[in-house]
């Protein structure tokens, strides 16, 4: 309720004021009547004494009187109001004006023009000339002039003018929603639109207005203001130009304390204008304003020239600007740019923006598509000169991209400037210089969280993208340098001519940057004022150098540090990956004495896939020392005039050969200087090529045999302080050899020459020797020397190969009788094939062994050094025969291993529990009366059963187990002695034996077949190759068979398998129920192992360059070895057949008599016992041997393969 009462009181007060104002106001309606207009000012002045007057203009058009009596004395508020937009036509006369004079004592009065067009003013007087004149005679007046929705068109000037000696404070003129068109000015007055002279404290405001097509051809600005305030809000300046060059001339005293005299521009647009403002000591604020379509050919700044002013530009745009001679802003002023964009700008001046002697802030700004096309190497985007006061250049959240400069993009000058770059993106800059060229002294530069990519410095004489001259404190963190290219050195950073240097780079990536030297960083210390207090500090941590490239040196870093000035250096967690350079794929140190880093510390530095063409894939230095290739020899024996080749290798500090494929170090030349004077030298200078210096024509001439000392040195024109590991060399000059010719010159120096022969003598090819004449001395002439062929060559010009004679006939003499013996034995075996000793041991197997021996001896008649045909037959027949002998011997051995019984085991069981065995034998006879006539068979059967029982008991008694060795199938072999077994376990065990032996036959035949295929395929393959001839020990030529390597492999393989045979046959030495020939096979394997393939291996490794010795050793020893094998395989059979004992198994089969001695109640007491039944047991065993060994049978006139499944022991009946 109280609040409503308050509202009512307020409304009532306002209503009273309104009534009072109405009571004090007077509305005057006038029309376009000449007499009315003539006396208008006088009539209105009378009313103004008592009332606020509002002149209502009801007509659309009014011609102002020309008599000059339009003087209004303002004592109260005066308003010119038109509803329809009245036109004031000044009729283009000199005297038609509006004069408004504020009377002294009239305070806070207001003059208003509403909806009026000021048209056709062209007046001129010697006093003052303007469409409207505002004057006052009292400095205390605080008047206000408002132009509301007015238009000024085709006028010489619109003036806010005072001309008094005293100051006027706080006068205000406001243009709201006004249009200014074709205001062309007057040469006699200082301003075309507003002229405020000799006064201060005025406020000029333009709101929502438009200035369009105002062209002033006089040397005056549009606004000429003196210590006033200017506000331009939401206003457009379009096509506003003045010959004066500025839109606003804003003058303020340098010692003015009136901080209220500001220029404020907000939400406005300037297009196709002159420079916006000139002045000094101003406070200027520009916000949300656009400057565009501006072309300047003047030398004054394009946007403003307000020296020593504080300028703040926020949320604004500068675009489509062309400057032919000047920068955008004055050089001396405090400027702040916030969230401002500069785009599509072309300038031919020295710089687009020049900052001098003041700190600068550029934040959240963008610079795009800018072309700085001034003088070569002297046109920049920004120049910052800190002066002597250590000013700050602060760049934060700034994007600079797609710009081109004909010089350095940003140039920094002055003393101790502070450069701060945070979150700056510099992308796609094409500059004829660095992106940042720091030429200041003791600069402090910080780059943080910035991205510098895709930039190019095309100036071949300027280093780096960020270049630092003089002393610098440089810090980079959390930044990326990528895809940058520099035509000079330093693909990203360059440090030149420094006295003090402190560098800290942390958590930064350098990738795919390139330069001539130092793909990323280039250090060059060429000029230095020596001061022991000036030190270097270098700290690199958490950095990745990846895929950077240097055309010459240092794929990532090039360093010319002077280590004596390095105070602190740290490399930690630094990775060099896929960097490339000519030398130093990652790091190159030009001053080899200054290897100040532990570059090989893998815990701190990672190197991966860096590549250098010359030397140092990871790190390298300049050439450091020269090393003689034969460093252990400092004294040499040569002859005078003899060519003595020297070879030296050039190394860097890290002991890497300086290969130098492209000859960048070609100026390093080696010179061997003589310390003595009694000699003459030739060919003592050489340049390094591919890291080597070869003195291939070095010669020393002396008068007599003597000793000469030399010193190694480099020619004086090299730029490297290269050292030598061997500085002095001594030569002992000997007299000429007997085969040489001594040539003595006129000066007494002699030389030893090898004899020379005519060109037809093939000395150079090594086929002949040139021998000196025995009668002529001191002359080396083809007429006196003799050409003599060396061993291996013959003919007139030594072009015919001299082949080594093949002494091989003796081999045929030796092998022929042996071959006949083998054939005779084979015939003998055939005739006696039904004799038991041949039939039971295997007639086919015996004949196959003999056939293998026959193949071996036939192979001995073919010389491996004669031809490919002879060599291939020798190797084929030899190894087919040897392998056949081996397979048959292995069959005998492995069959014995499977079917034989260890004698010790049998005797052990025969003496265990004799009583129980006897009872078992009697029980067996009672249960098996049909077999009672064969005692031995039944005893063996009971022994088998007894052994089975013992085994079962031994499973419960561990002590018995240790006394009886187990053997696979040994408890089932005695089932062979049953007429017909019904024990399934026995049948399974016997089938397993049969299966193993059958598999053995099958595997051996398959292996033999594979061998034949391998050797046949090898022969076919090598047959297509060209014949190769090599020289033997005596120089004569011999055929080299390409199968010899294969022959060597076969010999090694045979040696290994014979070792296996020896081990197996040794195992059955104490077996019973095996063929006695197995003992002979043991002897055979030992002889075979000693004199068979082993001899072939030894002769291959020792005598391949002597065919006769090779053949003799192989033939004599091998033929003797295999002849002994022949004897051991056949002599017993031949002897027992001739002596009529060939059918008695005791002479070829090893068995035991196991009858019980009744006297001692023992089976192994040694007494003579009757061996009843032993023959039948052996026959049964032999039958089982034959059964297991049956692999191919002859039936119905055909050979048939016996399958393993068809061999069923159930069908085997003794």
TrEMBL record:
Keywords recorded for this protein, A-Z: Cell outer membrane, Coiled coil, Membrane, Secreted, Signal, Transmembrane, Transmembrane helix
Protein name: EGF-like domain-containing protein
Location in the cell: Cell envelope; Cell outer membrane; Secreted
The species this protein was found in: Piromyces finnis
Coiled-coil features, chain-numbered ranges: 936-963
InterPro entries, sorted: Pectin_lyase_fold/virulence, POMP_repeat
Entries under SUPFAM superfamilies matching the protein: Pectin lyase-like
Residues annotated as transmembrane: 7-26, 810-831, 843-869, 875-894, 1000-1022, 1081-1103, 1109-1131
